[in-house]
Amino acid sequence: MNIITAHSIETDPKKAARHLQTQMEGFNPSVVIYFASSHYDPDIISRSMQQAFPKADTFGCSTAGEIISGQMLKNSIVAMGMKADLIGEMNLQVVPDIRTMNHVDKAFKKFKNYFSTDPSNMDLNEYVGIILADGLSKSEENLMDYIGERSNIIFIGGSSGDDLKFNQTWVYANGKSYTNAAVLALFKPKVDFSFIKTQSFKPCPSTLVATKVNPEERKVIEFNSQPARVAYAEAIGAPVDQIENYFMSNPVGLVIDDEPFVRSPQRIEGDEMYFYCNVMEGMALNLLEASDIIQDTREAVENKRKELPRISGIINFNCILRTLELEKKGMTDAYADIFTDIPTIGFSTYGEAFLGHINQTATMLVFS
């Protein structure tokens, strides 16, 4: 066994870290990744986790809900310990200001020095990255684009949360906490790995072209050369004063090879639409229609079981909007049950990372 999972609902961060340590006693992980409710003090939880696992690299972030095999939790901390026999080589870097890309350059130079290989030349079948970013920075798109230009490998992950307070989120690395920052972990695993991306939406024929935008504010001013609110209302066939009722079930998406990359509307101000993720000028987006989140996720996991000889662990970055949908429909137990027999941790994110920054999606790193 190269992976172990643990969780705690202890409210005191020091006690919670010790509880996790007790559950992993004798396992001796080389890496511990953890996701912690924002009710834990960020400095104390990050320091306590490193003290609990002094021989491991520890990293994680704050959340808007936690996932552990068979359960979706609130106000808890979940963790996965991984042995060196699985994780192989790993280097952890902090980008202390994700609005300043020179910090990303510094991180990638350190990756190059550590692995003796430039990330732009790394084999994407041998290396994989995890990214945890400040979920309120509105900088994930630029960060992912910048990483994509400098790397040949896939970085998968999510944006940190703060239990829907939308005040401040945190990332953690080796005993320290950071805001307006990102943590990058680059691995060369000794086992096979793969990915799951499931968004539980299908494209509709209606197309909305972003003809006027303010990307810094994630704001669309016009779709199809009409006020954004009006064009969206026409696309879904609803009165303009009711369109916010359709945001969760009918977001929009950039469709590539029949695969939607979701952009979720957040709110309306006047005739302008604000999104949880950037929409660039000239981008042609399909209106999307919700499908069955439980069935889609179950099929995605089962298909991955058929593809790999086995699944030894999953890290699940699940959008908070998906969690809210599951809660609204009373389906959180059904979703958690999909992962009951697989060592799994995850969290409800403020955005997902996979070939860019997306919404209303679950992106998962799967270890064989």
What is the subunit arrangement here? single chain
Major β-sheet, in short? 8 strands, antiparallel
Low-confidence stretches: none
Average pLDDT figure: 94
Estimated share of beta-strand residues: 35-45%
The radius of gyration computed from the alpha-carbon positions, rounded to a whole number of angstroms, is 20 Å
Helical content stands at 10-25%
Describe the structure.
It is a single chain. The termini are close together. It is globular, with a radius of gyration of 20 Å. The protein is an alpha+beta fold. The strands form four sheets. Strands 14, 15, 16, 17, 18, 19, 20 and 21 form an eight-stranded antiparallel sheet that branches. Helix 1 runs parallel beside helix 2.
Keywords, please?
eight-stranded antiparallel sheet, 368 residues, alpha+beta, 24% helix
Question: What's a quick, concise take on this entry?
Answer:
The chain has 368 residues and is of the alpha+beta class.
Layout of SSEs?
Elements: E1 3-8, H1 13-23, E2 31-37, H2 42-52, E3 57-63, E4 66-68, E5 71-73, E6 77-82, H3 84-87, E7 89-95, H4 102-115, E8 128-133, H5 140-150, E9 155-159, E10 171-173, E11 176-178, E12 182-188, E13 193-198, E14 201-214, E15 219-223, E16 226-227, H6 228-236, E17 252-256, E18 259-263, E19 265-269, E20 272-275, E21 284-290, H7 293-307, E22 313-319, H8 320-328, H9 332-337, E23 344-349, E24 352-354, E25 357-358, E26 362-367
Parallel strand pairs: 2-3, 8-9, 22-23
Antiparallel strand pairs: 1-6, 2-6, 3-10, 4-5, 4-23, 7-12, 8-12, 9-24, 10-11, 13-26, 14-15, 14-21, 15-16, 15-20, 17-18, 17-21, 19-20, 22-26, 24-25
Helix pairs in contact: 1-2
